[in-house]
Amino acid sequence: MTAATAPTSGLGAELQTASTLLSDRQVEDLVRTHYGLSGKAEWLWGEKDSNHRLTLEDGSTCLVKVLNAGEKPETTSLHSSALLHVAHVDPGIPVQRIVPALNGAPDIRIPTEDGDTRAVRLVTFLHGQALSSVKHTARQRANVGIMMARMQKAFESFEHACANHKITWDMTHAPDLAAGLDCLTDEAERDRLAACLTRFKADVLSRLHDLPTQVIHNDFNCENILVDPDKPDEVSGIIDFGDMVRAPRVFDVAVGASYMLDEESEPVDCVFDMLAGYATLQTLNDAEIAALYPAMMVRTLMRIVIPHWRASMFPEHAARILCRTDLSRRIFARLSAYCEDEFAARCHTIFMRAPK
Questions:
Q1: Total-model pTM
Q2: Distance between CA atoms of 315 and 354, rounded to whole angstroms?
Q3: Which of 215, 352, 340 lies closest to 286 in space, CA to CA?
Q4: Angle at 142 (CA atoms; ends 139, 144), nearest 5 degrees
Q5: CA 333 from centroid of its chain's CA atoms
Q6: Per residue, what are the HEC states of 102-159?
Q7: In the chain, what are the domains?
Q8: What is the pLDDT of residues 37-71, one digit of tens each?
Q9: Which of 33, 50, 106, 166 is the most buried (most CB within 10 A)?
Q10: Nearest-5° Cα angle at 248, 244 to 348
């Protein structure tokens, strides 16, 4: 994948630079040099990084993540520090464990061909199946909610100088997505999504002071949640901390809830299974409950607009980038048809029983 000239817009720079992929041989050499480990590398797909599974000589596996050159060192530090923090505060949360380099650092930097540098992180490989690949159940969705609540509780005590950085997938900056609507060819769709953004700005972003904020994972999607193949109701892993940011806590909930609709047959009601699990450990205040439905709408909107924007920059990868946008459109329509007042009423019922 090669870098592309980004269109002038308010969209984030972290997605405007594509990553130069390393060969498996290059990855094997750098791990041997900087980590003292020998193994066989296998490339894995990633949105903006060069990811490789590394099978070591003893048969164990690790994940080598060679970060995009556009990622700043302080951002890399944020993600590495978050993994270390979660492992320390709640070791039972199944996140990847950092394998330190020979110099003891949680991540290293290597030179690029153009004279820049990019970071490398080596972590344990979490085994399991992506939630997207198994049948969904009410118990499973509740367990996803519980795991999100645990993650949020772990992050309550996490601070980092880079946590307030601006990223494209942060709903706090959703109005910037208006610049990407021109990538959509359907005028009626552009108008619907523009109206959704306008409403979100007026009804949610204008009331950010009422929404508790903290560092959030911000990407609890069905590819980043792993389940035990033998017990698919059990969450066995949470991966990809690359979109984490300090933002309203309810935005994290909205992300996770919106992805509970990732199968064609799933009604909006299944979201409440996840929220019921979340509510066993966390609560939402009235302002957060009011913000949850429009935030789910906007997250789904982002899943339409951002891929189209990236496909316009990297047309050679358009088919892969856009492969799930039609599903996102159907989810957006499904949410749009649901009665928002009923949604809020059911949330209030769930969170009335939540711990205070």
A1: 0.92
A2: 47
A3: 352
A4: 115
A5: 22
A6: CCCCCCEEEECCCCCEEEEEEEECCCCEEHHHCCCCHHHHHHHHHHHHHHHHHHCCCC
A7: 13-124 (3.30.200.20), 129-352 (3.90.1200.10)
A8: 999 999 998 777 889 999 999 999 999 999 988 88
A9: 50
A10: 125
